[in-house]
Design a protein that fits this description.
Oligomer: heterodimer
Strand content of chain B: 25-35%
Strand order of the largest sheet of chain B: 7-8-9-10-6-2-1-11
Number of strands of chain B: 11
Number of helices of chain A: 3
Helix content of chain A: 25-40%
Shape of chain B: globular
Structural class of chain B: alpha/beta
CATH topology of chain A: Enolase-like, domain 1
Radius of gyration of chain B: 17 Å
Largest sheet of chain B: 8 strands, mixed
Order of helices and strands of chain B: EHEEHHEEEHEEEEHHHHEHH
CATH architecture of chain A: 2-Layer Sandwich
Largest interface: A-B, 19 and 22 residues
Shape of chain A: globular
Number of strands of chain A: 5
Largest sheet of chain A: 3 strands, antiparallel
CATH class of chain A: Alpha Beta
Distance between the termini of chain A: 6 Å
CATH topology of chain B: BirA Bifunctional Protein, domain 2
Structural class of chain A: alpha+beta
CATH superfamily of chain B: Bira Bifunctional Protein, Domain 2
CATH superfamily of chain A: CO dehydrogenase flavoprotein, C-terminal domain
Order of helices and strands of chain A: EEEEHHEH
Radius of gyration of chain A: 12 Å
Helix content of chain B: 40-55%
Number of helices of chain B: 10
């Protein structure tokens, strides 16, 4: 299990908790004090992340695409910030 | 003639009903059963609310809350954990149609516009309030109000907290701290970062005086007239149902 926290400069806090195997995300939970509209999209993001390779750029694009498809917007955090925190949590997975 | 909104002061209620009523009003507004609404409310017993995306176990000291008789509830809005003290804190909600002239597609812009009512009200009291992006209002550089917004069903719902007096020691009894060693440091840091109306003005401001000033502030900055009204049967019944089925449920409160 890996956990990480990432406070976005001038923005909000992201916390990620994940399990990974063979460089891929198995289970992931993203929490924090950010804003994402519609809120339920967080579950679409988490579902889309499961099975993905821990690559910061790829994860960022994936999150951005999920948000685009759901016409979602975030405030205080960006897809890049989510991806960065996921990678940090992945590095602590062990 | 000024545009009329409904004004509600629902007084003291528990956390689950408070959050359920907010959602019930939003649903009623989406069905055009009620006008745009400004609601004031307080929390009894005192409570902690967490943002939609937060983890209850990670943010809240459940045992301390249970021991102190403090409720804990997940909000339908994002943002951070808030301690709502029965005597120290006033909460408001704005429920307005998304196509209203005050609402922008841009969330940040809408926070600024809707918070302008609070800023105006606080200034009437003599508090030098200013909006601070993303979603705060500050006075003398310290936070005095936090706000959170959600949208759905063509309705914008923004609620927020206004600190009348602040109790950092109790705040950190109910909110989790990373370690006991830094509890005192966190309490001091809250004292440095957070303020209250009573602190800024150096006198006791009653809830009545505070709500009166805010009502004037909202009317003035929104260009509306707030007409005291009451909750409809539809809203009350829906709130009772949402309280039991959603906001008081373990499934909702511990879902993340």
């Amino acid at each position: 299990m890996g956990r990480a926290e990432y406070k976005v400069e001038g923005g909000k806090l992201i916390k990620v908790q994940l399990t990974a195997a063979d460089g891929k995300i198995r289970r992931i939970k993203i929490t924090g004090d950010f804003f994402l509209h519609p809120e339920e999209v967080i579950e679409d993001i988490e579902n889309a992340l499961e099975g993905q390779i821990l690559d910061e750029h790829e994860l960022s694009s994936l999150i951005e695409n999920v948000m685009k498809n759901k016409q979602a917007v975030s405030l205080g955090v960006s897809p890049e910030d989510f991806a960065r925190c996921i990678i940090m949590a992945g590095e602590k997975n062990g | 003639m000024d545009e009329k909104w409904r004004l509600l002061d629902t007084g003291l209620n528990d956390a689950f009903y408070n959050m359920a009523l907010d959602e019930a009003i939003a649903i009623a507004r989406s069905k055009n059963l009620v006008p745009n609404t400004l609601r004031f409310f307080r929390w009894s017993p005192s409570a902690v609310s967490i943002g939609y995306f937060q983890s209850m176990e990670e943010e809240v000291d459940i045992k301390a809350c249970d021991d102190l008789g403090i409720n804990y509830v997940r909000r339908r809005t994002g943002g951070g954990a808030v301690y709502h003290d029965r005597e120290g804190e006033l909460t408001y909600s704005i429920i307005v149609n998304e196509d209203h002239r005050l609402i922008s597609r841009d969330f940040q812009e809408t926070y600024r516009t809707l918070c302008s009512g609070l800023v105006s009200g606080l200034r009437r009291l003599g508090v030098p309030a200013e909006f601070k992006p993303i979603n705060d209002i500050v006075a003398q550089g310290k936070k005095i109000s936090g706000n959170a917004q959600t949208r759905g069903m063509n309705v914008v719902h923004q609620h927020g907290t206004i600190l009348r007096k602040v109790n950092p020691t109790l705040m950190f009894k109910v909110l989790k701290v990373p370690s006991e060693k830094i509890r005192d440091k966190l309490i001091r840091s809250v004292e440095e970062r957070v303020t209250s109306i009573n602190t800024v003005l150096g006198r006791e401001v009653s809830f009545k005086e505070l709500t009166d000033a805010l009502i004037n502030g909202f009317e003035d900055s929104f260009g509306i007239e707030l007409a005291p009204g009451s909750i409809t049967d539809f809203e009350e019944e829906l709130a009772q149902r949402l309280k039991v089925e959603k906001y008081a449920s373990r499934e909702w409160n511990f879902r993340r």
